[in-house]
Design brief:
Elements lengths: L1 H12 L70 H75 L2 E10 L7 E9 L6 E10 L5 E5 L2 E2 L8 E8 L8 E10 L7 E5 L6 E2 L2
């Protein structure tokens, strides 16, 4: 018995090995009984020099799984369920949004209509202003026309003296001074005094070379005609015609209330 235990003691004394405690119930040989349900793996061994590298060691046991018995994985189904208060709130929000949209549309339409009415009123006001301005201008033109007619009538009334003709008498005194007359008539309704006629001296081209102002001192009764004499000097040889261009007179015998006006288209008197 002592010889059989000796090798075990020698093995325990070798370096690199773990001693087996005495009285251990675990067997110390290499033929250990293992659980056959667990896979056994061979540890990787470093090959010794000069030897070939062994291939992977086969597994003694590979666990088998029964795929048929495993149930398939089904996706989880999610169902969204709205509670009644939430549904009512959503419906109310939609109705409120519709009402707000309708009110906004009506407001925008009202604004557009108001703007159109304002523009129409402005246009109507502008047209009325233009019409009023036109009426005012036409009224002013009519007033001016009436005033002009009144002035013409007043002027016609004031032009009581009319030039009816004239003639050239020549040098009647032998002094070299030529003598002519302008015939006038009182077309007014009262006597006129201090009647003065402006007589223009014209050359052959009709250009005025000078003027003379003959005057009648006596009163001219309504409807009466008279000759007013004028003279042209001997040094005015270029004068070929004489023509009355203006008349002035006093409306009373005292020589007050003078009236003067121009005479147009009076007859020309040839000077010989």
């Amino acid at each position: 018995m002592n010889e059989e235990r000796k090798p075990a003691e020698d093995t325990a004394s070798q370096p690199g090995t773990s001693p087996t405690p005495p009285n251990s119930s675990v067997p110390q040989n290499t033929n250990q009984v293992t659980d056959s349900s667990q896979p056994q793996y061979q540890p990787f061994q470093t090959p010794h020099q000069g030897t070939s590298t062994p291939g992977p060691q086969p597994m003694n046991h590979i666990p088998q799984y029964n795929m048929a018995q495993s149930s398939p994985i089904k996706p989880k189904e999610r169902t969204i369920t709205l509670k009644l208060p939430v549904f009512i709130i959503m419906i109310a929000a939609i109705i409120v949004a519709l009402i707000v949209g309708i009110v906004a549309g009506i407001s925008m339409s009202s604004i557009a209509v108001n703007e159109a009415n304002t523009r129409a009123a402005t246009s109507e006001a502008d047209r009325k202003k233009i019409a009023d301005a036109y009426d005012q201008v036409m009224s002013q033109i009519e007033q001016e026309s009436q005033q002009a007619q009144q002035e013409q009538q007043q002027s016609a009334k004031s032009e009581a003296v009319t030039v009816t003709g004239g003639r050239w008498k020549g040098d009647t005194t032998g002094t070299g001074y030529g003598e002519g007359v302008v015939t006038v008539r009182n077309d007014g309704d009262k006597p006129l005094s201090i009647i003065t006629v402006t007589v223009a001296k014209l050359d052959a081209g009709g250009k005025v070379t000078g003027e003379t102002y003959p005057q009648m001192q006596s009163a001219l009764q309504p409807g009466q005609s008279a000759d007013i004499e004028f003279m042209i000097g001997p040094d005015e040889q270029n004068v070929t015609h004489a023509q009355a261009t203006a008349i002035s007179y006093a409306s009373d015998k005292n020589g007050t209330g003078f009236t003067q006006y121009n005479v147009y288209n009076a007859p020309k008197i040839a000077v010989k």
